[in-house]
């Protein structure tokens, strides 16, 4: 036989509370005493109540959905951050709607409007195409990760410290020339400090160095082709010198290492390589790659804590938005592996 659907009236009769009180339990539980909340929760379990999520969204506008916009998933850092955030459901009970922006502003704006139509309660943004000023104009709780964030809350790695760690390690490896490879982007992004840290240390210690910045495109294949060109150029121009290569991320570092090994059958003494992220690809590479470890588990946790803080405030009768954005910075850890001494 078909099981009877449990209604608010059934719950009210079972608990001797009014239907209004039962409604308050679902829509504004803080208005009830803890004792009464526990009585109703027990009754729901005993009655086998199954909540109608759609009806609840229509009733109070709270969807328990969080939107995420990520640039791509071929960069291992983004995929690992996503993995950590999506795994937070058990702790925070929020579900996620994910869109991949591919660095197209008009597409990402369309995605945000789509997410707002789904009544998302908050938004996490890892892409860089939409300014933080525009993001703030949507008037929902937002946390960004590793991008420009003047007007909204953010969680970033201390990229400058990480860059200094990587550069100093290559110096300790007695490299003749230090080379940093990165993409082209504005200097207001947190990751620009990877460039600044490298240049500052090399300049301070009067070292021979080169900064290579280029457009790597928006796909894995275009990135491979560009790094192949850079590798061939470096390998020719600095043939007889010990080269310390500091790459912007582990994806770039793994591609560069593969090109070296394909040509020489091993990692020669005159190449030393450091990546950035500590994404799984760095430890699982054909030769485990030394890297600056972004603490991705901590980044994901701080992001969700900061977003939940804002979302909980918005659920109050008289919410008070943050007076100014909160910016959190996580210290990285240098992880030495086989691509350095």
TrEMBL record:
Transmembrane segments: none
Residue span, HTH cro/C1-type domain: 2-50
InterPro entries: Cro/C1-type_HTH (IPR001387), HTH_LacI (IPR000843), LacI/GalR-like_sensor (IPR046335), Lambda_DNA-bd_dom_sf (IPR010982), Peripla_BP/Lac1_sug-bd_dom (IPR001761), Peripla_BP_I (IPR028082)
One protein family per Pfam: Peripla_BP_3
Alphabetized SUPFAM superfamilies for the sequence: lambda repressor-like DNA-binding domains (SSF47413), Periplasmic binding protein-like I (SSF53822)
Keyword vocabulary terms for this entry: DNA-binding, Repressor, Transcription, Transcription regulation
The keyword Transcription belongs to this UniProt entry's keyword annotation: yes
CDD domains for the chain: HTH_LacI
Keyword Cell inner membrane: no
Domain HTH lacI-type positions: 6-60
Molecular function GO labels: DNA-binding transcription factor activity; transcription cis-regulatory region binding
Protein known as: LacI family DNA-binding transcriptional regulator
């Amino acid at each position: 036989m078909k099981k009877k659907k449990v209604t608010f009236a059934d719950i009210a009769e079972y608990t001797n509370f009014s239907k209004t009180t039962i409604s308050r339990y679902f829509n504004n539980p803080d208005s009830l005493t803890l004792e009464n909340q526990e009585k109703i929760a027990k009754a729901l379990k005993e009655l086998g109540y199954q909540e109608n999520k759609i009806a609840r969204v229509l009733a109070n506008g709270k969807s328990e959905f969080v939107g995420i916009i990520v640039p791509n998933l071929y960069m291992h850092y983004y995929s690992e951050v996503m993995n950590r955030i999506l795994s937070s459901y058990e702790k925070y009970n929020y579900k996620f709607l994910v869109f991949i922006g591919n660095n197209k502003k008009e597409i990402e704006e369309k995605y945000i409007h789509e997410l707002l139509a789904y009544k998302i309660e908050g938004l996490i943004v890892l892409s860089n195409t939409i300014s933080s000023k525009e993001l703030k104009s949507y008037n929902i709780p937002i946390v960004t990760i590793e991008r420009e964030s003047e007007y909204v809350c953010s969680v970033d790695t201390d990229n400058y410290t990480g860059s200094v760690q990587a550069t100093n390690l290559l110096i300790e490896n007695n490299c003749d020339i230090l080379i940093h490879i990165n993409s082209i982007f504005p200097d207001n992004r947190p990751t620009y400090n990877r460039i600044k840290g490298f240049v500052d240390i090399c300049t301070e210690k009067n070292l021979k160095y080169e900064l290579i910045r280029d457009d790597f495109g928006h796909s894995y294949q275009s990135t491979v082709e560009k790094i192949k060109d850079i590798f061939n150029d470096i390998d020719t121009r600095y043939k007889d010198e010990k080269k310390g290569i500091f790459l912007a991320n582990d994806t770039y570092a793994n591609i560069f290492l593969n090109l070296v090994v394909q040509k020489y059958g091993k990692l020669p003494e005159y190449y030393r390589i450091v990546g950035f992220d500590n994404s799984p690809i760095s430890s699982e590479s054909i030769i485990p790659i030394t890297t600056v470890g972004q603490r991705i588990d901590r980044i994901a946790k701080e992001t969700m804590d900061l977003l939940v803080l804002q979302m909980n405030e918005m659920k109050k009768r008289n919410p008070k938005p943050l007076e100014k954005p909160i910016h959190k910075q996580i210290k990285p850890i240098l992880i030495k592996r086989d691509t350095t001494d």
